[in-house]
Structure formats: C-alpha cells, structure tokens
Amino acid sequence: MLRFPAGFVICLVVFLNLFYNYFFSVNFPFQDDFLLIQFVETVTQGKVGFTGFVKELFRTFNDHKAVVPRLIAFTEYKITGHLNFRFYIVLVLLNITYIFYFVYLQFRKTRLPLYYFIPVPFLFFHPLYHEISGWALNGMQHSFLTAFTVTAILLASKRTHTALAGALLCCFLATFTHGNGILSFPAVIFYFLCFKDFKKATVTTVVMLISLGIYLAGYESGQAVKLPTSIAVFFTSLFAFVGSGVSLWEHPILVSAIWGAVITAFMAFLFVKASGIYFQEKTTVKPGTIELLTLFAFIFITSTVIALFRSWMGTTIASRFQIYAALSMVMFYILLVYYFPVFRRKAVLFVITGLSVFYCAYSYYMYSDVVAGKKSIYLADVYNWKYNRNMFSVEKTIVRNGNFYLLPAYDKGSLKLPDPVAGKKQLDSMFTASEKSDSDYSIFLEDWQVERVVRDGKEHLHYHFLASNDQPERMRFSDNRFLVLKDSSSGRIYMMNANPKKEGRKHIITSGNYYKNGFNAVIRENDLDNGIYKLAVLDVKNAGKMAFFKLDKELSVKNGSLFLK
Known about the structure:
Organism: Dyadobacter sediminis
Protein name: Glycosyltransferase RgtA/B/C/D-like domain-containing protein
Keywords: Membrane, Transmembrane, Transmembrane helix
Number of strands: 8
Transmembrane segments: 7-24, 85-105, 112-129, 135-156, 163-192, 198-217, 229-247, 253-272, 292-309, 321-340, 347-367
Strand order of the largest sheet: 4-3-6-7-8
C-alpha cells in the first residue's frame, strides 16, 4: 500500500536534483575542460594521422589519461561540429542516477519494503559533490569511473566467463577515464576472493597488470603527487575521505575522520563475516552484501591511494571526491537496516528519514550559493570571451597558455558558446542612459592575502573583494547578478559574478529569502588592466528581464592595486 507513495518520493528527489543541476549548468568550459578543446583541435588539423591520434588520445594530463572523455568529445564533434559542455554535464547526471540505481538493486535483494529506501535519495542527491555535477571533465571522469566500476561489479556477480570479460572491459575503461580507475581491478578481485573464486581473481590480476603497463607507457607525473608529511595526516585524510559526507558542520576534518572511521569499522565487521567462507561451508552474509562491500572496497582503496599521494596538501575533503563519501553513507545505512533489526523499527525509520531530509536540505543551503555563483561566473565569461577574448573564471595565465587552441577552436566553431545574457551595445546604452547614482551604495574594497599550497612550498596570492551589503535590493534565487565594469579610456566592458551573500539559516526559514541585499565580486591581482572603470550592477532574471544599477563610485586599477574613487 505504501509502495507507490515511497516510489513517488524517491523519484521526486531524484528529478529535483537533476533539474537543479541542469538549471545551474552552462555550456562553457572551465579549467581542465580546456583539455577536451585542445584534444579536438589537435587531432582535427589533418596532420596527426592514426598514430598521432592514438598518442594524443592516451596523453597524460594532470596524472590521468582521460581517454574516454576525449573519445566522447571527439565523437560529439564529429556528429555536431562542436563541443557542448552542458551535454557532458547531462551525461554526468545520467551516470549519477545509474550509480544510484546500482545501490537500489542491492537494496532490493533485502526484500524490505520500499519505504526503507526513502532516506537513500536524500543522503545521495544533493550538491555536496557539486564539482562533479557541475563541472564537465571532472564530472565525466569521476562519474564514468564509478559507473564502470559498479557495472563491473554487476557483471562479476553473474559469475560467467562472458560476464567476466565484460567486467574486465569495464575496469579497463575505468582506468582510462581517470587514474583511480585502475583501482576498480582490486575491487573486482576482492569480489571473487569473497567467493573463493581464485581462477577469476587470477585472471583479473593479470589483466590489471597489463592495463597498468599500458597506462604507465608514456606516463608523466603531475605536480600534485607527493608523500604525506606525517602518519597522522595520512590517517586523518584516509578516514575523512570516507566520512566527509558530514563535513557540512563545524570542525569538518575531525567530524569527517571520526565518521569515516565508524563506517570503515562497520564494513570491516561485515568483511570478517564474509571471510567466514574460508572457515565454514556457507557464508553468513546476506544477498547484496558482497556487492556493496566490493564498492566500498574500491572507495577505501581509492581513499588510501589519495591519502598517500595527495594529503601533503591537507586532508582529502574536496567536493570532487565527495560522491564516494555520499555512497559510503548510503551503503552504511542500507547495511545497518539489513543486519540490525532495531533499525527496521518504524520509529527509528521515521527519525532517520527526518534526519536525512534535514541533511539534504542543509546541503542545498550550504552549497547553492557556490553552485549559483559558478553559473553567474560562466555566464559572465560567455560575454567576456565573445567581446574581449578573456575569462575571469580561471587565472589569466591559463587563458594565455591555452589561447593557441582556444582562439582557433572558437573561430572555426568547435568551441561554440551560447548567446551572452547581454550584448556590448546594450550595456553601452545602459551606461549612457544612466546618470551617476546619487544614492550611497556603501561599496567597500578589501584586500585578501591567500596562501595556496604547492608542491615546493606555498604560493602567495593577492585578491580584491569589491562588495556592498546594502544595495541593490536582494535578488531572487533563480536570478543572476553581475558586476559590470567599463574602462573609461578604451570603452571595453567586462562582466563578473556579483551574487550577494546568503542569508542566515533562521532568516531563510522565517522569510524564505536565500540571498541578502548587495553584491560581492572577487577580483584577482592581474584580472584587470590599468585604468579607471565605471561600475554597475546588472540583474538578469531567469526570463531574461534586466535591471541595471549604475554605482556611485569608480574603480581605479594601477599595477595590480585597486582603489575606489
């Protein structure tokens, strides 16, 4: 009787998350996405030949050989004539949904009523791992890698020779999607060892070594690989990787490390139960447990490798890895319900469901300003690239170094961007029609000195923070707010994200407003050329309606120093 309402709630949570991520996505490349443009531009010049194509396809970038994402981009280019980064994000969202379906398949083996599954989508579908759901290449790498891994687990569970071949192919594809994909092989080996299937485990090991050999051919180590500074940092990173689903609250590193240790200890307990097959005729674990344990084994092995080679920069609490933390939490809940009757009590289920709904809502509260800010940044850069051939979403050196393929790709149409939210003539006319504001916008300028950890030490960065906490009036959640800057001497106009701060939790609950009044814009030291810039704020509503606010001050830029006048 409750199956339909439970299914409706689950599907609704999934659909809302897909809509949320699609709404905030933009067909614009960001940082590592340039890799796809460079690859397509290189191999379509007609001079590389088949050998050169394969060499470029398997070229190492940032420690990874992103063969599968490159092939996807190349295939799309051949079909449509251009690259669509919003389409890649749609593929990512489909992958995430498929990974969720894998979890559901294992839950179904428990034969529990569907309403026990209701907490799972709330624990999984939210913007905790927004760098995956909103970043084309990064999202494709992590989501395809995980999708290939869960498919390999499903095929391995069929225990046939044909299915084994399919599982090994999935592991191979995972390896050449993201460097961590090679770790899908040990996960499948773990699965076979749980059933004392030494023959298939041996075959998987051999194929893993062959795949590793292919991967290491021409491999170039990146700047991010370095051993940790201490054992404490290593273990903190290791467990925080698994438990960072709870990093939304205070003391995120400590809380995540403790939570990750609890999850790992519970999974180790189930592993001991599964290893009983080596000491008695029948295993004591229930259906679906080994599949979930295998996925967790992949996550734990991955966390170990990342903690070993990346924790020198700090703990591994990073949005691009937190899809694994979300999966760990989901599997932890399902297995608790499966093995401990107390968690199947209706009162306990009611409490857990309530907490999972609160957790999901809090994640949206915490990260929606970041997600919406990225959309505004990319929309601003659509304008900046079309009219100025520059971007503010990445550091100027990245654009400068990539111009040798970005410019020709844009000129010939393989880098095809959407129309900007406003044209230069339109913004020019808005500046001309608007007199200098008589009202006090209470604009202030702050300097930020930021330290960024690099392999050889620390890099010191200088940021400027231009903001007002008073005006313009608050914008709606679905709107975009931009800082518009017009160079008084050259007439060039630039756009930057200027979304305001989010309201406090109590105010959001009582008023329903997510954003505060005012605006916020971050400017790097070398973003702007020397000059005097007229300032304005532009609000663009979801329907395209605009509101233009000419500010009462101008911005002076001289050799990286900024002043208001």
